[in-house]
C-alpha cells in the first residue's frame, strides 16, 4: 500500500494569488489526499493593481497597505484549498514586490528582484530541509511571462533545490535533502486555444469582462508535447475557483473564466499542467506528480 501521508509537495510562488491560479486544483487534490502541501510565497504582492473600486486606496501609489491585505486573502485562499502550511520567504515582508519588468520599483532596495540569490536561496533551503519534499513546483526560467518576481522565484527555487542537497552547505540549516522531482508550471497551446474558443462561444465578453485576453497573455504556454504531467480536473474545480475568488483585489472570477486587473477575460483551467525538469518520470504522461516516488 502506498502511504499517501508521506507525500510532501513544495510550491514556490512570487505573489499571493499565483498559487491559486497556477496550482489551485493540484494543491486541493494533494491536501485532500493527505499529502503535506507547503506553499512558499516570496513577496506580499504590494505592487498589484486593485480591482474593487472600494479597495483601490490600498494600492502602492495611495495608502500602500495592499501587502497586509493580501496576507489575509492568501490565508482565505489556503483555507479553501485545505492547505495549512503556507509561509513567506524569510517571513512576511522580507522581500517586496518588484513591480512589472522595467518599472522603477525594480530598483527599489528590498525588492525581490534585487535580492541576493544565495541569500534568498538559503532561506528556502531551510524550508526544504525541514519539510523534505519529494516534489517541487515552480515557474520556468522566464517566470511564465517575464515578471521579475516570477523569474527570481524560479532562480531561488532551483538554486535552493541544489543547495539543499549539498552536504557541505550550511549544516546549521538542517540535514541535506535531495528533491526527487522538480516541475515547472506550463499550459499546452491546445488547452489555451480551446479555452479561448469556449470563452468566445460563451459570448460573455461584454458581460463581466470588458474584453478578452490574447492567448499570448497566458503565462507558460508551451507546445503540447512539452507537457509531461496533467493533474486536477473537475473534482477540484470548485475549490480552485473559491481560492481564486479569495484573492478579490487581484482576480474577478465568472464561471469557468476569470480576469485580472486588466479586465480581460481568460479561461480558468481546472486541469493543471507540468513539465518535469529533474528526476525520473513515473509514466510517459503522468497524472500524479508523485508517480515513481512512493514505495
Ligand atoms: Zn505573480
UniProtKB/TrEMBL annotation:
Gene Ontology annotations of biological process type: mycothiol biosynthetic process
UniProt-annotated binding residues for Zn(2+): 15, 18, 150
Cofactor: Zn(2+)
InterPro entries: GlcNAc_PI_deacetylase-related (IPR003737), LmbE-like_dom_sf (IPR024078), Mycothiol_biosynthesis_MshB (IPR017810)
Domain of life: Bacteria
Record field: catalytic activity: 1D-myo-inositol 2-acetamido-2-deoxy-alpha-D-glucopyranoside + H2O = 1D-myo-inositol 2-amino-2-deoxy-alpha-D-glucopyranoside + acetate
Coiled-coil ranges from the UniProt annotation: none
Molecular function per GO: N-acetylglucosaminylinositol deacetylase activity; zinc ion binding
Gene name of the encoded protein: mshB
Keyword entries, A-Z: Hydrolase, Metal-binding, Zinc
Gene3D superfamilies assigned: LmbE-like
Native source organism of the sequence: Streptomyces cinnamoneus
Enzyme class: hydrolase
Protein name in the entry: 1D-myo-inositol 2-acetamido-2-deoxy-alpha-D-glucopyranoside deacetylase
EC code: 3.5.1.103
Keyword Ligase on entry: no
Record text on cofactor binding: Binds 1 zinc ion per subunit.
Amino acid at each position: 500500500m502506498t502511504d499517501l501521508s508521506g507525500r510532501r509537495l513544495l510550491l514556490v510562488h512570487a505573489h499571493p494569488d499565483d498559487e491559486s491560479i497556477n496550482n489551485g486544483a493540484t494543491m486541493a487534490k494533494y491536501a485532500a489526499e493527505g499529502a503535506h502541501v507547503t506553499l512558499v510565497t516570496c513577496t506580499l504582492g504590494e505592487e498589484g493593481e486593485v480591482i474593487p473600486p472600494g479597495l483601490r486606496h490600498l494600492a502602492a501609489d495611495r495608502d500602500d497597505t495592499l501587502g497586509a491585505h493580501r496576507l489575509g486573502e492568501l490565508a482565505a485562499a489556503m483555507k479553501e484549498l485545505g492547505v495549512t502550511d503556507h509561509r513567506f520567504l524569510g517571513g512576511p515582508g522580507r522581500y517586496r514586490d518588484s513591480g512589472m519588468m522595467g518599472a522603477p520599483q525594480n530598483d527599489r532596495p528590498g525588492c525581490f528582484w534585487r535580492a541576493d540569490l544565495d541569500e534568498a536561496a538559503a532561506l528556502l533551503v531551510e524550508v526544504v530541509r525541514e519539510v523534505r519534499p519529494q516534489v517541487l513546483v515552480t515557474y520556468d526560467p522566464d517566470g511564465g511571462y517575464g515578471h521579475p518576481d516570477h523569474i527570481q522565484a524560479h532562480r531561488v527555487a532551483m538554486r535552493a533545490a541544489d543547495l539543499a542537497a549539498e552536504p557541505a552547505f550550511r549544516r546549521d540549516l538542517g540535514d541535506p535533502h535531495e528533491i526527487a522531482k522538480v516541475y515547472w508550471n506550463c499550459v499546452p497551446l491546445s488547452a489555451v486555444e480551446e479555452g479561448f474558443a469556449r470563452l468566445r462561444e460563451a459570448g460573455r465578453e461584454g458581460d463581466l469582462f470588458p474584453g478578452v485576453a490574447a492567448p499570448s497573455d497566458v503565462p507558460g504556454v508551451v507546445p503540447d508535447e512539452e507537457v509531461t504531467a496533467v493533474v486536477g480536473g473537475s473534482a477540484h474545480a470548485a475549490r480552485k475557483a473559491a481560492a481564486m475568488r479569495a484573492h478579490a483585489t487581484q482576480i474577478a472570477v465568472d464561471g469557468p473564466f476569470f480576469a485580472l486587473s486588466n479586465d480581460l477575460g481568460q479561461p480558468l483551467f481546472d486541469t493543471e499542467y507540468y513539465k518535469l525538469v529533474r528526476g525520473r518520470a513515473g509514466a510517459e504522461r503522468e497524472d500524479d506528480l508523485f508517480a515513481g516516488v512512493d514505495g
